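for the recovery benchmark. tokens below, seq after
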């Protein structure tokens, strides 16, 4: 390595191709033009072992976000799945989110991931649909997720899957929009979902469908974003859903939309990640969302 070569690459050939190993730093100049020394030693900065450090400094971007009360303090926290399939918990700290903790892994190929209190213990669990259409329940066990339990199959063709307490028994039920745009509720009876009831139709064009207690009566309502970016609230009326009420516009460009009780007043608020990657909470004021507040410490999505 001669003068002028500093910063150049050191490469190696592998079965998968050429890899960058290091970059040149200094050398004794042996063999270079005008050099009298015969030493050819060189110093290089190794780069091929920096993967773990880079991951620590720049966390992988998230592909999915979900909001639910993981801690049991009546305020929604945020859970996220990154590009490697790891599941992260971002605690609510009053006005924002604090440092994350890893609570699970293995969800990289999941098509739907949601957080809701499936067990009825007051703390959010995780429910997800894998690439084979199997529905899995991951119980909350304190600081992480327990071994998953399969609670369904045949979900591969569903365009939306969400979870909320439809029947007010304290446990989240599963709601889904099938390939025909029909909205179904599957009642939670433990480690199975033996039956379903149709509660709507015409949902095929919606970009987001969320089950959450927007009204504060203990029953999950449905909130959705249509193809025009309008935000709609469908009140729970007992056996089904009442006529929708428009509660917002301009949601068509959002990367993620969630519904959960951020403020702790017993009613679901709306949380969204806009096209620039900023995360906002829109406090539930009834039939309107008059303002928004940025959530400090929110993670970045892909």
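predicted aa per position
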């Amino acid at each position: 390595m001669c003068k002028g070569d500093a910063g150049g690459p050191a490469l190696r050939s592998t079965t998968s191709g050429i890899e960058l190993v290091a970059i040149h730093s200094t050398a004794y100049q042996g063999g270079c033009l005008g050099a009298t020394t015969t030493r050819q030693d060189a110093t290089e900065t190794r780069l091929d072992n920096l993967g773990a450090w880079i991951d620590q400094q720049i966390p992988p971007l998230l592909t999915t976000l979900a909001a639910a009360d993981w801690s049991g303090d009546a305020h929604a926290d945020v859970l996220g799945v990154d590009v490697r399939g790891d599941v992260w918990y971002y605690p609510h700290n009053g006005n924002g989110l604090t440092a994350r903790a890893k609570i699970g892994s293995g969800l990289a190929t999941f098509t739907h991931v949601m957080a809701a209190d499936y067990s009825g213990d007051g703390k959010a669990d995780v429910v997800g649909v894998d690439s084979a259409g199997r529905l899995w329940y991951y119980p909350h066990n304190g600081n992480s997720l327990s071994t998953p339990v399969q609670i369904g199959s045949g979900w591969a063709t569903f365009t939306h899957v969400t979870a909320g307490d439809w029947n007010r028994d304290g446990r989240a039920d599963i709601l889904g929009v099938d390939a025909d745009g029909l909205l179904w509720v599957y009642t939670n009876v433990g480690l199975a979902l033996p039956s379903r009831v149709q509660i709507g139709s015409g949902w095929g064009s919606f970009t987001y469908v969320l089950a959450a207690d927007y009204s504060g009566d203990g029953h999950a309502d449905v909130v959705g974003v249509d193809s025009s970016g309008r935000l709609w609230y469908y009140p729970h009326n007992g056996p089904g859903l009442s006529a929708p009420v428009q509660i917002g516009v301009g949601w068509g460009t959002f990367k993620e939309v969630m519904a959960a009780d951020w403020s702790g007043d017993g009613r679901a608020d709306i949380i969204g990640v806009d096209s620039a990657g900023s995360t906002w909470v829109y406090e539930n004021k009834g039939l309107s969302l008059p303002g928004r507040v940025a959530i400090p410490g929110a993670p970045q999505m892909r």
